[in-house]
Design brief:
By secondary structure, the protein is of the alpha+beta class. The protein is built from 23 helices and 23 strands.
Length: 825
């Protein structure tokens, strides 16, 4: 066929397809909306997955970028994959592979206090310490001024220079070119801004847009051999294989850790030392960067991707059923087209063009939904005062995915009806058509597929909802109500006496019930660990956890005291300790620990136990209950002189129900009590608790949304099949009613076959659910797939949807007038 004829036929079919959509407005709108929800959800999921896991960094040769990691076996519970390293180790590793790769040190991007004016004008920005040669290695160019160089990163504290990200320059300074030369204070150092980075480069941590880059040599940790504070990125040189670089890096890695074990772990059991030394260094591709958010959300995003794909399949099956029913109504039209010379391909093209109209319109609406929903989901990932920030451009990657998706769904739901329409036999169609039972069987099979996928989505959603419910409602062992947390820093380290003076000042304020001090809040994620020795025995293989708290802290947190006493103002560390029930059971075999002694072997400090308290969540909500020893906030050195502290948290229990109402007052009063103290962050303990369930809340909410959409689509599809069945069997139903069939029998006749498909689909969905659980069980908390409530949710929901969908068809069937039907025949 000439090209012009092909184009002309395609144009004609496009116009005809549009007319058909306008002719069936309600049916077309239902199909478009259902597809739009599914396509929009898929596109939104792709934007999130692409931004966090797939999109390469805006640097030269991202495919040659790798990150170092190793697996630790020293923590409680499952092994942990770690990527933190000491800077002295980094220097040795860089020298080892200088001829094969360039190593780059980058700290974790952290929200940091800084000021461009007086100390009363503190603001926060994401700051990252980076190797001076990072920008040149990545092939980046400055948008303004200059970038850091290797000469800026040679000597500790020598070059207090800073480079702003383009995003921060635009957001904070309005792209003012006069920003060059400005200074800001961070801690005890004053930094000068020397440049602005490339517009597309936002750092190497997806999920965080870094605001300020400074040289690693400006961090005090560059000289510390026992502080892990940097990640190590490896940029391979052309033609170099990652495996060979990794093999060479393992030599300095093991040598450094051997020396570390000699210095730090003299009191540790040999088994733990061996595990520490046997940790293997690995390299992982880091073309898309490396971040905690990637680690935390890789599996959840993959799971959500599967869920939205299932919803898309349900929508496609739904529209395929709709088009199959329409094909039956258009059998005579197709027969006439064949009779006047239309070829099979022309009929396929006609139906596929109509399908393409549906898909393109749905993709347009779905694209708008994805444009809004993806940023909304990101905003829900982290707490409101510290939301995640993902770059979500609508570029060719997203557009290409949306177009490919539209093309794919066109064939998914349109090809089968198109092939059936093209296979029409004119003689048979003009006499009344083919056997309608074959078409009903196809539609029934599609219903079974829809129900199976719907059951699977509902089943997984139930697991996520149960996980969130049990995780958020579990007992933490303390009361978070009305507690305000004031993270505070002093200009220089201060003895506990001065910290107590501030606490006493806060206690006198109206609306304050009690005030206590701690090194950090519970569930913040911080931890101090150590080996524990009892009665001079070798240290236990199990790690103990420590936390420094002031007298009254146990009362402020409302942790029940089982036996013994609270700390007194005269108590200090080392000397006495209060231990948790888990600590007593682990190290004292459940015996009464009061009056007994234990030793923290790393620094050979000895403690007498003066109190026993109930277990409380220490650093997270998911892991096992940890054995914790609480030690006095007041500490002394070997000579009995007070040890000063620069950081601490004031635990303030308020009288009012909204502790944040006192936040501004508390910030001012801390500095009023001691001008050299300032509050760096204020949050509630309840908010801190909730931050540990953000991922689970997000999964539960999104899964419920997709489950609702899947259930709605399955119900609409079921209704369509039942309605079509009644239309096709009007004559049979009329005859049965004429010879005395009762309404109950008619209802069974109409619904029996379809309900068998529903049951088969539910059984298949349950089997798929049981198989899929093994791949996502790490996302669940105290939930089993065999729990009655988990199984009941999808079963009852699908049953209810099937009954509601069947009701209109049954009413239609029992109201058929036998006389009118038989007279028409």
């Amino acid at each position: 066929m000439p090209l012009w004829s092909c184009i002309d036929s395609l144009r004609a079919d496009t116009v005809f397809g549009w007319r058909q959509l306008r002719k069936r407005k309600v049916t077309s709108a239902a199909a478009i909306v259902s597809l739009a929800l599914a396509i929009g959800a898929c596109t939104s999921a792709f934007r999130l997955i692409d931004a966090l896991l797939l999109r390469p960094l805006a640097i030269a040769h991202p495919g040659r970028l790798y990150s170092c990691f190793h697996q630790s076996f020293l923590s409680a519970g499952k092994p942990m994959t770690l990527d933190g390293y000491e800077y002295p180790m980094f220097r040795e590793m860089r020298a080892m592979v200088k001829d094969q790769a360039e190593l780059i040190a980058v700290s974790y991007a952290e929200r940091t206090d800084l000021t461009y004016g007086t100390d009363r004008e503190i603001e926060k920005a994401y700051l990252q310490y980076v190797s001076g040669w990072m920008f040149s290695t990545f092939g980046l160019r400055p948008a303004l001024g200059r970038l850091l160089s290797e000469n800026d990163d040679l000597a500790p504290g020598a070059h207090p220079y800073a480079v702003l990200s383009y995003d921060y320059w635009k957001r904070r300074f309005g792209q003012d070119p006069k920003v060059l030369g400005r200074t800001f204070r961070m801690g005890d150092s004053v930094y000068q801004i020397v440049g602005v980075s490339d517009q597309r480069f936002t750092g190497v941590e997806p999920g965080t847009v870094t605001d300020i880059f400074v040289p690693t040599m400006m961090n005090a940790g560059v000289a510390q051999v026992d502080r892990s504070w940097i990640r190590i990125l490896v940029q391979l040189k052309p033609g170099v294989v990652a495996a060979s670089v990794c093999d060479r890096l393992r030599t300095p890695f093991r040598a450094f850790r051997t020396e570390m074990a000699k210095r730090r772990f003299s009191g540790m059991s040999q088994g733990r030392i061996d595990k520490f030394l046997n940790e293997a260094l690995m390299l992982a591709p880091a073309a898309s960067g490396v971040s905690r958010m990637q680690r935390d959300y890789r599996q959840p995003l993959a799971t959500l991707g599967v869920l939205v794909a299932l919803v898309l399949m349900i929508a496609c099956a739904n529209v395929a059923n709709l088009m199959t029913a329409q094909a039956a109504a258009r059998a005579r039209e197709m027969a006439l087209r064949v009779s006047i010379g239309a070829g099979r391909w022309r009929l396929v093209q006609l139906v596929l063009v109509e399908s393409a109209w549906l898909a393109l319109l749905a993709a347009s609406i779905g694209g708008a939904f994805a444009w809004w929903s993806a940023p909304f989901v990101v905003s829900r990932i982290n707490p409101p005062d510290n939301p995640a920030r993902l770059v979500l451009p609508a570029d060719w990657r997203v557009l290409g995915f949306a177009l490919a998706l539209a093309l794919g769904v066109t064939f998914l739901f349109g090809l089968a009806p198109a092939l059936r329409a093209s296979a029409v036999k004119p003689a048979s169609a003009l006499k009344g058509g083919d056997d309608p039972h074959a078409r009903r069987r196809l539609m029934g099979a599609l219903i079974a597929v829809q129900v199976a996928f719907c059951f699977l989505v509902l089943f997984v959603a139930g697991l996520f909802v149960a996980t969130f419910d049990r995780l958020s409602n579990q007992s933490t062992g303390f009361s978070a109500e009305r507690i305000l947390l004031l993270d505070t820093v002093a200009e220089r380290a201060q003895p506990a006496l001065y910290w107590d003076q501030v606490a006493e000042h806060l206690r006198a304020l109206p609306g304050v019930q009690t005030v206590a001090l701690a090194g950090w809040p519970l569930l913040k994620g911080d931890a101090t660990i150590g080996s524990v020795s009892v009665n001079g025995q070798p240290p236990s293989a199990d790690i103990g956890y420590f936390m420094d708290v002031s007298p009254g802290w146990i009362e402020a947190m409302k942790i029940p005291l089982i036996a013994g006493r609270d700390f007194r103002s005269s108590d200090s560390e080392p000397g006495v300790a209060i231990v948790s029930d888990a600590f007593a059971k682990l190290y004292f075999n459940g015996e009464n620990p009061l009056g007994k002694y234990f030793e923290k072997t790393e620094d050979h400090t000895r403690f007498q136990i003066v109190g026993l308290v109930r277990n409380a969540r220490y650093r997270d909500m998911r892991g096992p209950i940890l054995p914790v020893a609480y030690v006095p906030f007041q500490a002394v050195d070997d000579k009995g002189a007070p040890r000063a502290k620069r950081f601490a948290t004031f635990i303030v229990r308020t009288s009012g129900s909204n502790p944040l109402a006192m936040a501004a007052t508390m910030r001012q009063e801390v500095s009023r009590a001691r001008p050299d103290f300032r509050v760096t962050n204020i949050q509630t303990q309840a908010g801190l608790n909730q931050s540990h369930t953000i991922r689970e809340r997000l999964l539960a909410n999104l899964a419920l949304f997709f489950a609702g959409v899947a259930l709605l689509l399955a119900g609409v599809g079921l209704y369509g099949v039942l309605d079509y069945s009644v239309l096709q069997r009007r004559r049979e139903i009329g005859i049965r009613m004429a010879i005395g069939a009762q309404p109950g029998g008619i209802a069974r006749l109409v619904t029996a076959e379809v309900f068998r498909m529903v049951l088969a689909g539910a059984v298949a969905g349950l089997a798929l659910g049981m198989v899929s659980v093994r791949y996502i069980e790490s996302l669940f908390y105290q939930v089993k797939p065999t729990d009655l409530d988990v199984l009941a949710l999808p079963s009852l929901a699908i049953l209810a949807a099937a009954l509601l969908a069947a009701l209109p068809a049954v009413i239609h069937a029992v109201r058929i007038d036998p006389v009118a039907v038989l007279r028409a025949e």
